[in-house]
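Hi D.,

Good news: the full-assembly prediction came through. Inputs first.
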Amino acid sequence: MSGGWRLDAAVRDLLERALHVYRDDPRATDRLRHQLTRLDEPLRVAVVGGWRSGKSTLLNALMGEEVAPVDGSAFTWYEDGPQPDAVAYSTSHPPQRLTVLRSGTGMHVDLAGWRAGELRDIVVRWPTRSLRQVTLVDTPALGVDEHGRDPVLERVLRETDAMLYLTRDTHGGDLRGLESARESSVGQAAPVHAILVLSRVDETGGGRVDALLGARQLARRALREPHVDALCATVAPCSGLLGLAGRVLGESDFAALAALAQVPRAELEPYLLSAERFGRGQPPVPLDAATRSALLDRLGLVGVRLATTLVRTGCDSRAALSTELVRRSGLGELRESINRLFVDRREVLKARSALAAVETLLRAEPGPGTAELLGTLEQILAGAHEFQESRLLAALRDGRLGFEAESAEEARRLVGGDGDVLAARLGVAPDATAPWLWEAAADARWRWQERAEDPALRLAQRRGAQVVVRSCDGMLAELATHRSGSSSSLA
Amino acid sequence: MIAGIWLDALDDIARTCQEHGRGDLLQAVRLKRAHLLDPALTVLVVGEPNQGKSQLVNAIVNAPVCPVGDGRTTVLPTVLRHAEVATATVVQTPPPTPGAVAVAGALERTTVPTEQIAAGVAGTAGRRPGAGPAYVEIGLPRALLGAGVVLVDMPGSGELAATGATTPVAALTRADTVLLVSDSTRDLSVAELNLLLHLTRSHANVVVVQTKTDLVPDWRTVADRNRRHLADAGVPASLIPVSAALRLRAAATDDHALNAESGFPPLIARLRRDLTGKPDVLARAAVVLTARTVVEQLAAPLRAELESQRSAEESGPMTRLHAAQREADELRRCSIRWQNTLADEMADLLSDVEHDLRDRTRHILRMIDEAFETADPLVAWDTVQEWLERSLVEAAEANRRWLVERCDWVARRVADSFTRYGHGSLPPWPLVVPTETGEPLPEIERPSVDRFTVSQKVITGMKGSYGGLLMFGLALTLAGMPMINPISIGAGALFGGKSIHDEGKQLLRRRQATVKMAVQRHVDDFFVRVNKDSRDAARQAQRMLRDHFSALTEELQAGIVESLRNAKQAADTDAVARERRHREIRQRMTRLAALYEQAQQVAAAARPAPLAPRA
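Then the structure:
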């Protein structure tokens, strides 16, 4: 197996060598040092998308609190910190601390005194468990400038390790930005750094209650399309609005929804026809207009319809309703995907972004020795089995390979889905002896080798099996070096 | 009466197309004319995917005819027209069958059961594999459709251009009204605004329909923002916010208030107004757009021609004249060059050939000298003579061959100067060199050499032996021996033999010297003769080459002078022709401008009309 340490070590080595090559160039050295320190920092995940694609809502839903948006034209970095704190970085002024006002369900940053577009970065420190290993980045809307380039996406690719790419349609021009990011060698090597999020799915299909189910089908269909598959690790449908609502749903909100659900369906229906009717009409419930419009803001019209239906059909407590809303919003699955594909594989992703940075530098500023470094970089890319493993993990997660459950589970384990340690990969006790591990690895290798050569399986399945075989080979090789290493130390 | 005005304008446009020989434009204008005379109003519904286009169409006709769904449901364009009974037909160009000649415009119609409309629109039912572009035609008994509105629901795509709706020629014949559908959950995107700009260039009547107002509480602010976007982008399109869900619901419950709330009445009213205004207001606007498209299309080649003429002034006959002059200069230079080459090369050739011959004869002489160093001409003469004759002939032939080769080479060298005038400038080959010497070489006569005859030998022997006998006889008489004794006789014999031997050797030397002299003289004669022949041949070749290349040069010169004269003439006449063409193009441009002006006036006459009902 090619555990994280090996790619990691190769990347660190490459960075050191690049530092040596560019030792006379202070700017390049700065960038390389920055990459080196980033390898030890938390993973940076950017939330990227077009205008009104639901970036801030999704970010709030992921954090479970209403903290975004701060400023529509600046990158906002959400980091873990002991107490709430925000610092503004602009192009013209020195860094400046901003006032953070806590609200019931999150916070608000006071931007008084700053003009729109003046800020470049805002770093928000917020005490929450969800930021322990990940730095989330809220970005301005994507947009192509007059040179056909997208400054926001370019900066995202440069400064973050992974992204959630929000789109409302996997066919339109939305994906063109991602496609253009595939030009470099690193970009082509493995699209493991992006999860395509079908956002605002509550509005799909004209706002039907079962819109979320339809969206799930859409996502599955999109994954089967090669042009989507080549751009991202997986496609996840998610309604940030419903997810956030589920996570911050208060008792008063629930009470209002329960009151609505009391009204017979036929009587309530005319008021749920349109947002305007619900907000300004006179529904036969003891709710004032402010409460209703708050509900509408919190859940959206579709959310209100869904929530009342859910309360009627058995979600009779706040906790039950909020769990059901989160489940239906697709947020849970998205978080799980982020954990499995990004957080668990953070070493690989960070190594990947370091490689990308080195490649950009080498191509932009060629000099003596850079050609050789580029060769090393390509070698690392070609040899890095980790990317293949990440891809396979993603494919196994969304079940697009069609292995039966048991095999899929085993494959997931073998390629490092349960952890990178040998014992975890092989599914044996952590204190297993080397011969035991060897036997397990060899056994797994043979079984998967058979699958890789089984003509009855589909091509994608055989390819997947090959990846597993290579992982097993890696494990065997590692065991072999350990064995020889220990015997030589004995001698 | 009013219709007459725009019809006249359109006919003028058609005539102009014909004058300019643009059959395609003419066809388009004719189609447009037929289309404008047709009272039906074609409404094209376009927009990005998932904006609710099909739902909008459904809501307009109050029937779920177009399938709606989460993903892409509309694959084929759907045409809704009036019919007494609900029908559905898939129309497609049939797949090309081998052997049969494809008939342009042949359409195949397949009736689809009404419950299969969804599959038809998704492109899965009623389609034949390999068939060409297709659309679904649905007939519905509806008052609005009956009045003459034809709705076309396009598949949602950013690639609208691919459907041909936006190419200028196709656009002339297409829809009367275009509805661009964008939903209320976000503002108009840059792509949509670009599409609108494109559409308004070819369609007189474009409306932005903002759907899904039921979903969004703040659709009014979105609508305001969108109107601002339209104004900023300079798109002359109005915006109508609607909610298809409310309209369908209103139709189901027969709720007029809800229908009003859905925002559809203004849209329907707009469509009806367009329908009634079609023969007048719309048609005028369409004529203006047609005029603009046609004038742009016709003016473009004219402008390009003017442009190219300007650049042609540099590349036309004047350039050819200059080129011809340059050519003449070049030929002059070439002529000097080749003459020099010929003279130099020939001088070189002569000296080289002479040297070669000298070298060969020297070599022969050396061989002869060596041979007669030892050999006796008396014995060896015949062999040597034979060898000498053969060697000389060989030398002469080799020398001649070399001469011919060199001449050939010289000819090529000179011909190289003429490469830019094409190949085939070599003189007729092989070079006619007098291959045989004028008179045959004289036979070498046997030199008169002294033979050592027997009597000479006897006398010489006697002379020698006498001296020896006497010398030894006298010496021995002192010893008391007789004068003639065996010793003196022996000595006499010895001396006699030596004399004979010496004499023979001397004679041989003399003979060898004589022969060498004779051979040398002969070879010298040979050299002089052959050399003379070579020189003559070389000179002859030189003369021949000179004549040939002089003739060639003259020929070329004649050609160049001719082209120079032609170019000069052409330059003079071309200026006149260009001036004429220039004027012609200017006139045509003016006429086109006038045509456009006329169309504008037609529109101006129409302009007060739409204002009247609003006021």
